[in-house]
Structure prediction request, 555 residues.
Amino acid sequence: MSRLTLTTRASAHAQGLTDRPAWKALEAHCATTHDLHLRQMFAEDTLRGERLHAEAAGLYLDYSKQRVTDETLRLLRELADACGLNERIAAMFRGDRINTTEQRAALHVALRAPMDEHILIDDKNVVSDVHAVLDRMAAFCERVRSGAWTGHSGKRIRNVINIGIGGSDLGPVMAYEAMRHYSRRDMTFRFVSNVDSTDFVEAVHDLKPDETLFVICSKTFTTQETLTNAQSARAWCLHTLGDERAVAKHFVAVSTNAAEVIKFGIDADNMFGFWDWVGGRYSMDSVIGLSTMLAIGPENFRAMLAGFHAMDEHFRTASPEQNLPVLMGLLAIWNANFLGAATVAVLPYDQYLKRFPAYLQQLAMESNGKHVSLNGMRVDYETGPIYWGEPGTNGQHSFYQLIHQGTHLIPCDFIGFCETLNPLGGQHDLLMANLFAQSEALAFGKTAAEVKAEGMPTALVSHRTFEGNRPSNTLLAERLTPHTLGALVALYEHSVFVQGVIWDIDSFDQWGVELGKALATRIAGEIADSGDPELRHDGSTNTLIRRYRRLRHHA
Ligand code: G6Q
Prediction:
């Protein structure tokens, strides 16, 4: 749907945000500054590159290459005030039920709160519960890592397979990949999420059941994909081990639903619980991170939590001018709603962060991919942009062309580290040179005059010209540690929240995934039907199902 259609149709519905004086002031400001080029902004303010930065929890944010002036930033802060951002932040930390459509708190900050903090839900301090579970996780992980926990045949566990999907997969797999340097190298960690049997079969093809531990991660323990894969895992294990009692040694569950876990056949002693105020995509630092802790050990896991907490405290207490999540959130609003950028490219210059863009896709797009405001009215502005990305430098030889010279405006988040965990000749310097070069080229481009001065034939000048003025953030940290990873994830969690507050949407529900799930269950029944079921879908879906039923056995 074109932007025009969406806006026209939406304008008949709820307004609010776009009626605010602060919004209108930003629109007027945008109209007068739209053509301002970063070249000019840097030329007029020689200190801009040093000035427009903020730093917290080991992360340095340079936002000087964003297309903003001091006035833009002031107006964005005014908008945040008008939207009650401070009060919404306080409400989240207090444990208010800010996830209004599900009547739940969104209290992921409690997952990394130090033991002496008190955060109450229904008069109960949840921080002590969090630490009790952390201690249990740590004791279990120590037993597995030391070899004290053995499989059914007495062999030590060498392989851990996390089975989960969405929030019960993307966080754990991202964190494992990011923290691989700190992980046990004599153990194998794999992640199965897709209901496509290939995912499971490939994950176990070279593993032995008697050395394998399955961590079944599902908040609800009703998710079709996860339970199907868990059943396959059970069958795979028992096929070799041949004894039901083996399940107790090779399966643990992470869930809020004890009844379903027990029904599946996993002993309550082997279950790690959590709470409904932990959203799936905000759960990698909860017990959903059991596989992460198995890989990197309790001490590193706690260091990661400390990184999360450092960013939480910064978010809660820092002034908006210095507040990284607030700045990144407001800059995202500026880019999406005023400069018209529909996507954000996330470009980590660190191979260990290769799954970070995928993780962020869920965090940002499931949180802010909403078209109704908190009061249920259709919004008349764009909400959550599309997040995507690849680690540098690979992306440079692929889609960066479009970012540099295409017709879409694509703000970029560059993420880099001053020190590599794997020094090899001058490779890290080269990697970082590429990061800096890309953000420089995007911002400043290359003028036609510069191209001509190089003696380029006239016919090629326009092809070789780079307009520049492409905005980017650069996040720089000393090195990728568990603490840095925690801070980085918390930064994005809170930046996503800031955007949701401005857009006046519920960033913590995900009703959009429901319809597809319900239809899949119905169609699965129709496919399994051995007779000739009456199909009552649309003509296209009916035809596709019939064709599939006819051809599937001939494969
Ligand atoms: C995340 C979502 C969703 C969820 C998965 C798995 O915020 O709620 O991605 O994590 O659908 O759900 P279960 O953990 O309940 O299996």
The pocket of glucose-6-phosphate is lined by residues 165-168, 218-220, 223, 226, 279-281, 366, 510 (CB under 6 Å). DSSP finds 22 helices and 13 strands in the chain.
